[in-house]
User: What shape does this take?
Amino acid sequence: DDKNEYDFYQIIDKLERDTPAESEAKLAKIGISMENVAEFIQAAQPTPALTEVLNNLATRGLGGFVKIDYNVIRGLAYYSGIVFEAFDRKGDFRAIAGGGRYDQLVGLISGGKVNLSAIGFGMGDVVLCELLKDRGLVPKWKGKLDAFCIIEDESLRPDSISLVQSLREARFAVEYSLTPAKADKQFKRALELNPGYTIKLEKTPEEELVVRFKNLRTREEKVLNPDEAVGGLRAS
Assistant: This one.
């Protein structure tokens, strides 16, 4: 019944963590037999709503990726229909993603202004990352970085950030070290990101700012005024 629904789901959610005796005692308090629960889970017979989803997936050729598991209880109480979790096929990791159907959540959040059923899920980025590492599938960095700004003199950081911003506004991909670091460490990071150029603000003996461009392919260098930086990078 509705009064015991929440307690029942919490007990099922903890079946794998509690001992059989503990689960049986909890279920007995709400008038349910552990034997009946075990039989129901083992039978894994789909409800009409779940049957419709399974048939849809089978039609798409995805039936082999799905199995019914009535042990799965999502922890959030707003779910009102089918819930699901996604795992790697070998079962080596915990759930990569999980979610389900909810019918009242949008109405609740909108204060009753919008009554809309929905389905949603959340993904575990750490689990996904570990899975990709384990399978040797972490993609190599292929992003095109135009320049890396080396900030050797921390007193020039504000001007360097301003330079980076102007280049980004001109649609160049530019990175820089967010925290102070030795120039050689920044240069090493630049090589890892494989940009076309490194750029560095310097002061002349006359205390004027200039930008030193270094072509990492040819090792050629050129020095320009900051207001020439966009045109200089575009012409490269």
Observations:
- Residues 157-169 form the longest helix (13 residues).
